[in-house]
């Protein structure tokens, strides 16, 4: 693991803490090393990493498909309530599921007003736009305005 990269992320997160929206996103494509970077940060800060896909999906299974969109936000809030700052989130892809009818970035931004959140963003930052998936994909999202602080890594595990 590139220790300098984790050092840079730790400084980046400490700067995000001073913002109104305390959301730092580790942005990068598949294979960029977002998860190892997040786990190294977790080790340094002695906080857990929450696998959102695993935890949220398991809790949503208790509800009928038709009611999940009405429960997802409160269940997600329960997942992170009581966690030590910063809250570290990995594997957030389930939040983009169109059947849940939520806006993943806005959800994270809203929750980061009360706590610091560091989440991996499985996508890119292109021309100051956060992008998730390809335009033809049903989960495609693009954001030109956001309050999050993007920390971009490339496949070579370098900060951009």
Helix and strand content put the structural class at alpha/beta
Shape: globular
Q: Largest beta sheet, briefly?
A: 5 strands, parallel
**How many domains would you count in the coordinates?**
1
Short description:
The chain is of the alpha/beta class and 160 residues long. It is built from 5 helices and 8 strands; from the N terminus they run αβαβααβαβββββ.
Detailed description of the structure:
With 160 residues, the chain is α/β, with parallel strands linked by helices. It has a single domain, classed as Rossmann fold, CATH 3.40.50. The strands form two sheets. A five-stranded parallel β-sheet has the order 2-3-4-1-8. Strand 3, helix 5 and strand 4 form a beta-alpha-beta unit. It is globular, with a radius of gyration of 15 Å. The two termini are 17 Å apart. The model has no long low-confidence stretch (mean pLDDT 90).
Write the layout of secondary structure elements.
Elements: H1 3-16, E1 23-28, H2 34-45, E2 49-51, H3 52-60, H4 68-80, E3 87-90, H5 104-111, E4 117-122, E5 124-126, E6 129-132, E7 141-143, E8 149-152
Helix pairs in contact: 1-2, 3-4
Q: What distinguishing features does this structure have?
A:
160 residues, alpha/beta, Rossmann fold, 5-stranded parallel beta sheet, 3-stranded antiparallel beta sheet, 5 helices, 35% helix
């Amino acid at each position: 693991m590139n220790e300098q990269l984790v050092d840079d992320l730790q400084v980046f997160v400490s700067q995000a803490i001073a913002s109104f929206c305390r959301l730092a996103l580790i942005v990068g494509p598949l294979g960029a090393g977002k998860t190892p970077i997040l786990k190294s940060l977790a080790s340094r800060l002695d906080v857990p990493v929450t696998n959102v896909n695993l935890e949220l999906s398991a809790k949503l299974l208790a509800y009928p498909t038709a009611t999940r969109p009405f429960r997802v936000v409160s269940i997600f809030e329960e997942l992170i309530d009581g966690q030590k700052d910063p809250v570290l989130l990995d594997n957030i892809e389930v939040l983009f599921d169109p059947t849940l009818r939520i806006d993943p970035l806005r959800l994270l931004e809203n929750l980061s007003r009360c706590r610091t959140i560091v989440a991996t963003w499985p996508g890119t930052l292109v021309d100051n736009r956060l992008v998730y998936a390809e335009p033809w994909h049903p989960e495609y999202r693009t954001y030109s305005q956001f309050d999050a602080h993007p920390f971009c890594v490339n496949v070579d595990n370098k900060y951009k």
